[in-house]
Amino acid sequence: MVKMILDVDGMACGMCEAHVNDAVRKGFQVKKVTSSHSKGTTEIIAEEPLDEEKLKSTIEATGYTVLGIKTEPYEKKKFSLFHRG
Length: 85
Fold this sequence. Notes:
This protein has 85 residues and is of the alpha+beta class. It has helices at 14-27, 52-60; strands at residues 2-9, 32-36, 41-46, 65-73. Residues 2-67 form the HMA domain.
């Protein structure tokens, strides 16, 4: 699993976040996608890294600008009542 963090310029409200999220969901197989207009970011959780050029063009087709993409391994947080660390 990977987490992709995109810097997205042009989002101003919740509807902007929804437009970006919908575009990503329609174009790619993702586990989760969340956007924040206040942070200017979109976070995507997927099984494999997504094609960055295709991702960029998909989002830019909705009217927003992708300023950067960062990919890192994603570890699902394990929840346990007994092992606090």
